[in-house]
Automatic annotation (TrEMBL):
Pfam families: Ribosomal_L16 (PF00252). Keywords: Ribonucleoprotein, Ribosomal protein, RNA-binding, rRNA-binding, tRNA-binding. Part of the 50S ribosomal subunit. This is Large ribosomal subunit protein uL16. One of its GO terms (cellular component) is cytosolic large ribosomal subunit. PANTHER family: 50S/60S RIBOSOMAL PROTEIN L16, LARGE RIBOSOMAL SUBUNIT PROTEIN UL16M. InterPro entries: Ribosomal_uL16 (IPR047873), Ribosomal_uL16_bact-type (IPR000114), Ribosomal_uL16_CS (IPR020798), Ribosomal_uL16_dom (IPR016180), Ribosomal_uL16_sf (IPR036920). One of its GO terms (biological process) is translation. It comes from Cyclonatronum proteinivorum. Coiled coil: none annotated. Binds 23S rRNA and is also seen to make contacts with the A and possibly P site tRNAs. One of its GO terms (molecular function) is structural constituent of ribosome.
Amino acid sequence: MLEPKRVKRRRVHKGRIKGNTSRGHQIAFGDFAIKALEPKYITARQIEACRVAISRKMSREGQIWIRIFPDKPVTSKPAETRMGKGKGALDHFVAVVHPGRILFEVTGVSQKLAYEALRLAQFKLPIKTKLITRRDYKGS
């Protein structure tokens, strides 16, 4: 008599950030952008800090596009808690960033001002990044 085939069940883990990004690696909206060079989780607070830094430096001129969204929930248990008793409560949200991903885009301002604003945002990020310009950009 034939026995039914056993199905291996896969446990869901946190996962690893392997490989380069498969999409979101080219400038789509603006003229200048920040591109990630390392894999990392970026929190919603870090994204907001970058947005504030860019918009303040540009004094609300031009346009800013945020190309990442924190849609992965991260849980944590309180400090000095014993093991067990289930999973921890929701703590914050993160965006999973692979190398090559465009994080922020800017347009409508001079190249000097855009690079200065994006440079301030780079300091708020926990990863190595580089500033890039659209290929067909013609400075004014």
